[in-house]
Each structure stands twice: as structure tokens, then as C-alpha cells.
Design goal:
This protein is mainly α. It contains two helices and two strands, in the order H-E-E-H.
Amino acid sequence: MKLARIVTLTLALAFAAAATAAAQAPLPDVDRFGPQVGETVPSFSLADQNGEARDLQSLMGPNGLMLVFSRSADW
């Protein structure tokens, strides 16, 4: 029983120390990552669902292209 209490106390202290360290870490400035609104996107190529390479020029229509990235989709 005494060993179980020591292990429990040690784990609780380790968790508290990790939580304190994580809370003090500075948050990154995500507004500065990647292209900004209105900025030209660099050229890149990716495979589509059929395995064919697609770039922005192949997807662009007569009025341009709207590309939306969603980082919190719930599938």
C-alpha cells in the first residue's frame, strides 16, 4: 500500500510539473505563418484522388481559383 501511494504521488507531481511547464510556454504567432490574405500563393503540385498531378494552373477557371484550407474539419 505504501508503494502505491508513493507511485501515485510521484505521478501526480510529474503531471503537475508538465502541466505547469506547458502553460508557461509562449504561444506561436500563427498570423505570420504561410501566405497572407491577398498574397500570391507559391506554385505547387499535388496528386488528386486519381493519382494525377494537379497544379494551380490546371485548376484555375476563367475567373480565377478560390482555394480554402480548413484546419478543423470533423470527418
